[in-house]
Design a protein that fits this description.
heterodimer, A: alpha/beta, 6-stranded mixed sheet, 11 strands, 43% strand, elongated
């Protein structure tokens, strides 16, 4: 094994570790929902190549209303899925689609696009 | 901050399962928050925008006839609570309202306008659909242009690469710079969206198909660029044969410009074909929406007939439909008669006769007659719009079968990147020194390119879209992927008798007189007594008498006794109609009558005893006629391997007679309406997967209890809500078709997923060179990209086969 092979090996392993860390362990933009007069926790989520914010913090037991505004036609994001809540919705481009549910359980849940490539986290706090 | 915004309305109040609640847009504060948030969207922080206290909304107005109307609306809006300013433009039919989101909301503003007799709607809502279409069209054009540029420029590059130095004219010193010049526009123009998309995804710590394509082509391009511009940086001896596509000139390191540009060209071609095919998957819904007429002819005061836009038709308006015209909205015929072709919504090919009192459905086509009808449902309430909405929602839902694919694809891309890096490292170490960089690069690029999981992502949604769309065209509305999946696994099908197997409308089949009266007189007396009755049996008797042309007398002293019958005075005679219990109670005894009645019951009819002035007069046989095609449909269901069960509230003898006639052996009779769901539950407890077929009104609990609830002969909210599959047409054959369609759709999904998985699981190791030690196979990036493009197209094409499903 010559020097360049060792360099490639080490760099490769480091790169793999970085890829795994970057895509699976990283934290995104965090935001808490605001509470409306009616007691609903509401938040607007911009859908463009991803979700902004992509970490949403809500309280347990109160209705959550997420307004997804899809600002693109890229078909990757045309659907949003909250698997733990049994919700899946098409998001028409340039429109706001409201998704309402009430989290009954605290914990960290994920939401994602139809193919689970674009992802976000929903943190339900007590 | 006083940001100018156009409201983005909440859309898609789809039914949501689980703990979800439907969205409502009524609460002013609620809507306000939406707006406030949107105001911030452009500043890239759309989280919370509580500080906003003034917003703007554009309303699109209808019904204005002159400038005075505009001023009137403007005044009204300005004086409404929470409004800062309002400006109405008559020419553009727009109102621009600035308001305090804490005090009012667009929905209220719309209400304010409607109160004074004009129509208003959110302009952004209409605009969004157009904008989406416009954007989609623009994207298509762009895509085509990008592909053409890539195709034209990559062809010579590919030719150079394929020549492997054998073509003399390519062995010149400027060949690499020439390839660079040809490839540059492909990267910077044609392939630009991939890099842009990859960058956006990367910022979100996400990896998608763009990431794979961008990394793959980017690596090939940058490497080749370095070789071309600064060859001294790439130390390599390349007398060895290069894998796949070596560069042209053997005195410098090989370049891989063709890997970058041909991949981009092929993937764009794949997208182009895919977009075209995907467009077809939603054809059904477009066709349905295209059925909506744009105008209606309304009868105004004084009998004047005017053509108005469909949006201006109100409930209660009387509309005129001339021969051959499309019926604009749902309603009830008030005058005239015609035959209407309802095939586009129900699949029923025979025209349906419509006379006064008959219901007509918007979007169906009038035959040769002409008639007037009163609008009962308009706008989003019409059957057509409900169908469209339901199909849209169904197409947005995923089948549970797709979940596996979801889970896989989420981890897929980053892992593929890791595999590609690993392949690079292994090849760099294992390959001979002189060609290691080439081998490493080729397998790195191939793995990234072949692994695009497009086919996986398209497998389910395309099949569900085509399948549900195909059904909708024939009056079969499936609630979504989940309903399709459950329906294909059914073992037992429970048919409600009344309205499902039978027409649901009783008719008098037998008139049998004993004693002093002949049959016509018996019927006349009975019908006269029942004249005021609302009981279905009574109505059947009256109808029969009218058909026979009998003149009914007036009845007095009418008295109905629930569960027994009726009595009344007709022309001075006391007429008693009812069941045996009533007769016994009143001391009317006749052995002859009993025997005749028993014979009727045995034949599946309901016997109605008639006594006049306390003496037995005769018996009427009333039956709910079996639909003409019920027997054939039951046979077809059996052929599908389903156990067919009949469920009814009728007495056992009547029920069994009907069951015999249609070929059902298992009968659950004398079940009270509230007990139907329990019967379904019992079957489920015995391990059966049960479909319940009913008319969706009084058997809603049973429909909901069943694994698959099928509502038949209806298009109403209630039925759609309670059922998984709704059949607009009354024929039981729809049930057969729906189950067959679900089986076929699931089959296509399985095929798609199988091929997509096989393709990816075999493609990646092949591209990584796992077979090289044994067979010497190494996939070239160009072949990998062709395979990738082909896989998506083949999955969509397979789904499109459902369009040809015979119903």
């Amino acid at each position: 094994m010559d020097t360049s092979e060792i360099i490639v090996l080490v760099a490769g392993i480091a790169l793999i570790a970085f890829v795994l860390w970057y895509f699976f362990a990283g934290e995104g933009v965090r935001a808490a929902a605001s509470v409306t007069a009616a007691g609903a926790q509401r938040l607007r989520v911009l859908v463009k190549g991803g979700y902004t914010p992509d970490v949403i913090v809500v309280k347990r037991g109160a209705p959550v209303e997420l307004d997804f505004y899809r600002d693109e036609t890229n078909s990757c994001t045309e659907q949003v899925v909250f698997g733990d809540f049994g919700i899946s919705r098409m998001l028409p481009a340039f429109k706001t689609t409201r998704i309402g549910f009430t989290p009954e359980r605290a914990g960290t849940f994920t939401f994602n696009c139809g193919m689970n490539m674009v992802r976000g986290k929903l943190i339900v706090e007590d | 901050m006083n940001t100018t915004i156009t409201r983005e309305p909440a859309t898609g109040e789809a039914s949501i399962g689980g703990a979800a609640t439907s969205a409502t847009n009524d609460a002013p504060a609620a809507t306000a928050a939406t707006h406030a948030a949107h105001a911030n969207a452009d500043t890239d922080a759309p989280a919370n925008g509580g500080a906003n206290n003034s917003e703007r909304v554009d309303l699109s107005l209808t019904g204005m006839t002159c400038n005075a109307c505009a001023r009137r609306i403007e005044r009204r809006l300005t004086n409404a609570g929470g409004v800062r300013s309002a400006n109405v433009n008559f020419a553009t039919a727009r109102a621009t309202v600035e308001y305090d989101p804490r005090a009012t909301a667009p929905s209220r503003l719309i209400g304010t306008v409607e109160e004074i007799g004009y129509g208003a709607s959110d302009a952004a809502e209409a605009g969004a659909a157009e904008r989406e279409q416009e954007a989609a069209r623009e994207e298509q054009t762009q895509l085509r242009r990008r592909f053409l540029v890539a195709a034209v420029l990559s062809a010579p590059v590919l030719l150079v690469a394929m020549s492997h130095g054998r073509i003399e004219m390519f062995n010149v010193s400027w060949i690499n710079p020439a390839q660079l010049v040809l490839t540059l526009p492909v990267i910077s123009y044609s392939g630009w969206p991939f890099y842009q998309g990859a960058w956006v995804a990367l910022k979100h710590r996400a990896a998608d198909m763009n990431t794979l394509i961008a990394t793959g082509t980017g690596a090939a391009f940058i490497y080749s660029l370095v070789v071309t511009v600064a060859p001294q940086l790439v130390v390599a001896d390349h007398s060895a044969t290069m894998p796949g596509m070596s560069g042209g000139v053997m005195t410098v390191a090989p370049v891989y410009f063709e890997a970058a540009s041909v991949i981009i060209a092929l993937i764009l071609l794949g997208r182009l074909l895919e977009a075209r095919a995907r467009g077809k998957t939603s054809d059904a819904i477009k066709r349905l929406m295209g059925l909506q007429p744009r105008t209606a002819r309304v009868v105004r005061e004084g009998g004047r007939e005017v053509d108005v836009p469909i949006e201006e038709v109100g409930v209660g308006d009387v509309l005129v439909v001339r021969p051959g015209e499309r019926i604009p909205v749902d309603g009830v015929v008030t005058e005239g008669a015609s035959a209407v072709n309802e095939s586009m919504l129900t699949g029923e090919s025979m025209p349906i006769e419509k006379t006064a009192g008959a219901e007509v459905i918007g979007a169906t086509i009038n035959g040769t007659g002409s008639f007037k009808f009163r609008a009962t449902k308009i706008g989003s309430e019409t059957v057509l719009q409900q169908i469209v909405r339901m199909v849209e929602q169904a197409q947005g839902q995923r089948a549970p079968i797709a979940r596996l694919a979801d889970v896989v694809s989420g981890y897929f891309t980053p892992i593929v990147i890791c595999i590609a890096i690993a392949a690079f490292v292994v090849w760099f170490i294992a390959a001979p020194v002189e060609s290691r960089l080439s081998y490493a690069l080729v397998s790195f690029v191939s793995v990234l390119i072949i692994a695009c999981p497009c086919a996986l992502g398209l497998a389910t949604p395309t099949a569900v879209m085509v399948g549900t769309g195909r059904g909708a065209e024939h009056g079969i509305l499936v609630k979504g992927g989940e309903a399709l999946e459950t329906a294909h696994r059914l073992t037992t099908i429970v048919l409600d008798k009344t309205g499902t197997l039978t027409k649901g409308q009783p008719v008098v089949t037998d008139v049998s007189a004993v004693g002093a009266f002949d049959e016509d007189e018996l019927l006349r007396l009975a019908a006269s007594a029942e004249r005021g009755s609302e009981h279905p049996l009574g109505e059947a008797i009256v109808r029969r008498a009218q058909e026979r042309g009998l003149t009914l007398a007036n009845a007095s002293a009418f008295n109905a006794r629930a569960g027994h019958g009726v009595e009344a005075e007709v022309g001075g005679r006391r007429v008693l109609l009812g069941n045996l219990k009533l007769m016994t109670e009143r001391g009317v005894e006749s052995k002859d009558l009993r025997e005749r009645a028993d014979a009727l019951t045995e034949a599946g009819r309901t016997a109605v005893y008639v006594a006049v002035d306390g003496a037995a007069a005769g018996v009427l046989g009333v039956a709910d006629e079996i639909k003409a095609d019920s027997k054939a449909a039951v046979g077809a269901l059996r052929k599908l391997g389903l156990e067919v069960v009949m469920l009814t509230g009728d007495n056992r003898r009547t029920a069994e007679a009907v069951a015999r006639e249609v070929g059902i052996t298992r009968v659950l009779a004398e079940v009270l309406p509230e007990g139907k769901a329990a019967e379904v539950k019992k079957l489920q407890a015995a391990g059966q997967r049960v479909a319940m077929v009913g008319d969706g009104i009084n058997d809603a609990p049973a429909l909901a209890q069943a694994d698959t609830g099928i509502a038949i002969g209806t298009g109403t909210d209630v039925a759609i809500e309670a059922s998984d599959i709704t059949l607009i047409r009354g024929s039981l054959h729809g049930v057969v078709t729906a189950i067959a369609l679900s089986r076929q759709t699931i089959k296509v999904i399985r095929q798609n997923l199988f091929w997509a998985f096989v393709y990816n699981t075999l493609g990646i190791p092949l591209a990584a060179g796992a077979l090289y030690p044994f067979t010497g196979w190494l996939l070239s990036p160009v072949v990998a990209s062709a395979a990738m493009a082909l896989s998506s197209v083949s999955v969509v094409a397979n789904s499109l086969r459902l369009r040809r499903f015979r119903l």
